[in-house]
């Protein structure tokens, strides 16, 4: 096929992703120099459409970026008033007293928010400063200069046939070239993954680690609602062999955010994270909140949990990686949005200094150093051993030892008796062969508190144009049936929270089917596939979930 010709647009800084990191970078650049040309490209149909987070927001990142955010009407309207932590058994619970928790776990001063709505507000602030924000513009590939540095991205390519050839209404998109490109795609971004591999940015860091987070929004009865209450739990239904836990956040308007995170380092290929989430809602303490209510939204997203030691080098020739693309979530706090904002602000400052000095296209190592030594590094370094301890000793032992480590570091200036522990295997490598495990018999959803996957996916407002190429690419089409099915009982049937992958019986035996229209862009398949055979790429712009208030 002939090389595609595209128009090119020259700007100062190209930002991929209108999440908290990308928008913070854009705002900070314009605060520093209103004449800089800054473009933000967002693959969702609107800003916030692909944003999913718990979320209890630590406002420190926003405080540093927009100190007068309250006066400007930021949608942080529900301060945390009550903070609970429970160990769940099947029929009851034990509350862990707040005073036993390290101070960093305290949610006082934080806010229950919709991060989708926070990002919509941030986009308004950015546009008021002159930032150009383009939703519905998926960045399908990187553009490199003659020296091998990133000089921009291709955005807005539409109308390909299923085989990848240009269709009748094909639009080639546009190349956006910048002096620097900031990659802020979120967890396991496809461009970030390519960049980390191309420049070997992870050579000095530990393996990345992830969880799968699933969330529903419920309208609940007023008598079951307690605005400002935050509840987290460990234990049932996952038990104490598998890592993960829950959240229950009472926001305003008689709504509750209910969610479950399953660590993706689980061994049993029969485990089904979505079913664990649905079963969790039948716990008596959760049931009493949701009973008589109505689920109004559903979504899922991978969560980074590798922490400080898993952060790759975040500066590369021509740009920087920010936010969850770099893995900046504080696992025990279940918070990363504040760090995303800090990283975006620091990336902007590094880019501004370089542009002001007449530079472009080089490696801004000063950003990586500032990120790891500043607020983000300090936040993550204190909790760096929690994930490895959980993996080694299970959630109960990990909680006890992790709590001890966090307390010790609090009391002794960041010193840890454990040093910095390693994660060991990747989440894909952690998956064991099916013959070592027994299938799990999950209860059938009741349609009241628990729901089947396809019904719930309809509440994510997910849509993909069916005539486009499948954005879930198999490196080897034979592996799902020839390798993963006999060895691992093909876990893609279970780890996907949207029912994208099926093994169906055909005339010639089992066949692997990909229902990409259902994809909610969680990236679990890219992470957990034991053969590392699935490559998640962007569909055409605007496709995917359309989350209203996630």
UniProtKB/TrEMBL annotation:
Catalyzed reaction equations: a ubiquinone + reduced [electron-transfer flavoprotein] = a ubiquinol + oxidized [electron-transfer flavoprotein] + H(+)
Source species, domain of life: Bacteria
Cofactor note: Binds 1 [4Fe-4S] cluster.
Swiss-Prot/TrEMBL keywords: 4Fe-4S, Electron transport, FAD, Flavoprotein, Iron, Iron-sulfur, Metal-binding, Oxidoreductase, Transport, Ubiquinone
Residue span(s) of domain ETF-QO/FixC ubiquinone-binding: 210-303
Protein's UniProt keywords contain Metal-binding: yes
GO MF assignments: 4 iron, 4 sulfur cluster binding; electron-transferring-flavoprotein dehydrogenase activity; metal ion binding
Official protein name in the record: Electron transfer flavoprotein-ubiquinone oxidoreductase
Source organism of this protein record: Maritimibacter harenae
UniProt lineage: Bacteria, Pseudomonadati, Pseudomonadota, Alphaproteobacteria, Rhodobacterales
